[in-house]
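Let us practice reading a record.
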Amino acid sequence: MKRSSFVKASLLSVAIPSLGFSNELVTRKKNPLRFAHLTDIHVKSGIVPETGMTKALHQVQQSKVKVDFIINGGDAIWDALEADKASTRAQFDIFNSILKNNNSLPIHHCIGNHDIWGWFSKTDGLNSDNQYGKQWIVDEFQMPKRYYSFQKSKWHFIVLDSTQLNPAGGYIAKIDEEQLEWLKQTLQNIPKENYICIVSHIPILSICAGLFFEKTESNGDRLFKRNLMHIDAIDLKKLFIEYPNIKVCISGHIHLQDELEYLGVKYYCNGAVCGGWWKGKFQEFAPAYAVMELHDDGTSSRTMYTY
């Protein structure tokens, strides 16, 4: 055999298995599980928020990038924490009406802090109402529970309730003991060959949480407030290490966007549909939603869309 023929044959023998591997990779990436994450819509009465929510839903469904379902990441309405019952009812009616008339995709809901009724109200006796707190939104959106899980393809989704009432005032980002025990049991029951995506309204881990106020403390510290990122992040990190099939955590709340990887888990904070509370951008980030792609090999990617 001539040297030139030998070289060609050798290159061909190397190229064929490489090409086969590439095709396998392309196939694996070709049909991802794809969903839209619409968080912090904060809809209320008014042409700007009502039109904005409508346009976002239309774009999700009319895009060439087809999604399988929607996750509402919380803070669906403007605010129920301080609102009276009539105002809260009106806000939910607006959200439900827009959703009913402008969405045909399956949707899964997560509780945001502003979806919780009456915690900050100064009206006496509200806590005796059977809709007080989180019960209203659980009933309104027909959620299985304030936290729950579901399966899609090779991916198992765990939806957390990350907003807890703080006895010292306000709210605090963490999961309560009852929920923690449920989470541990749920993780034990998920087959190892399935990958896991965790949904929380407030980020478990995020650089955005330290950039929300765009300032540094006078002593030089960067402040991560207890209501902007999970205070139990270290405990959750230790739990997550036990389950290497946990691959993705998504959140909203901060109205900013980041993407980071820590100990094999990708954390995505996906901005806000309302941007700066329907007044344009919040800091550098315009009103937007995320389209997440989850692959059969456990990898993920995110694309942010303005509308």
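A brief commentary: The first strand starts at residue 33 and ends at 38.
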